Amino acid sequence: MIKLKTHSRSETVAEGKRFGEALRRGDIIAFRGGLGAGKTAFTSGLVLGAGLHKAEVSSPTFAIVNEYRGDDITVYHFDMYRIVSEEGLESTGFFDYDFEDNIAVIEWSENIAEFLPKNTIFVTISVTGENDREIIIEGGGRYAAYWD
Question: Concatenated DSSP letters for the chain?
């Protein structure tokens, strides 16, 4: 488990970028954290770290999924806030995406926890002050080297 603290949106983005540099094809990242916690800010950095420098990251709240495409990899950015059942998840086309060769980032993953694979990496972001965040990364031990 990795625990990080940030004190601004730019620091949250920077930690996301560092995390994104270690991502591999097939990684599934499940976010936990309330509204305004910084999940999309962290994802902005993650996408940069994954090498997708031209992607404009935005919350997929109304789209359910945003796709950020690079030359050889795509980051799928899901918002499961309104999904509360397997039927709802299926209606998004979630099971049709190519997770094996790409990266998936899932906001409000609590709503689909029972459908996430065992190798899912969990990122919990908590608000600890007006601009302060605590970020906990669980799973995928290879990330520890990035914060030594």
Answer: -EEEEESSHHHHHHHHHHHHHT--TT-EEEEE--TTSSHHHHHHHHHHHTT-TT------TTTSEEEEE-SS-EEEEEE-TT--SHHHHHHTTGGGS--SSSEEEEETGGGGGGGS-TTPEEEEEEE-SSS-EEEEEES-GGGGGGG-
